[in-house]
Specification:
single chain, 126 residues, alpha+beta, OB fold (Dihydrolipoamide Acetyltransferase, E2P), six-stranded antiparallel β-sheet, three-stranded antiparallel β-sheet, 9 strands, globular
């Protein structure tokens, strides 16, 4: 399992990359592996302010549909438009081209509640 050290993680298997007051969010390599072949991503929350733990979209795999949870509070500024026609990018490049949303943080201190790479590895047994 790929768990980049420069990212933060949630127990719900989202990853977060912080740059200034913006967070880029996606699902982890572990999550995409568990889901299997991803066929559709639905994100209809651009422009909305969401709290930590709220659903910002769904990911549909061949076997299941799963909710995507906000790892931090903030306003969804952008979604990855490429995923509308190439959802499989989440399987092939979950930490790069498979990112899902960019969020303007409303409470940067929430980052302190996220897991670092070592803690996430322990969570998934890697």
């Amino acid at each position: 399992m790929n768990v980049p050290a420069n990212l933060k993680y949630t127990k719900d298997h989202e990853w977060v990359l912080i740059k200034g007051n913006e967070a880029t969010v996606g699902i982890t390599d572990f999550a995409q592996h568990e889901l299997g072949d991803i066929v559709f991503i639905e994100i209809e929350t651009v422009g909305e302010e969401l709290g930590h733990g709220e659903v910002f979209g769904t990911v549909e795999a061949v076997k299941t549909v799963s909710d995507l949870f906000m790892p931090v509070s903030g306003t969804v500024k952008e979604k990855n438009e490429e995923l509308e026609t190439a959802a499989e990018l989440v399987n092939t490049d979950p930490y790069g081209q498979g990112w899902m949303v960019k969020v303007e943080l409303s409470d940067p201190t929430e980052m302190n509640d996220l897991l670092d790479a070592e803690a996430y590895k322990k969570l998934i047994g890697a």
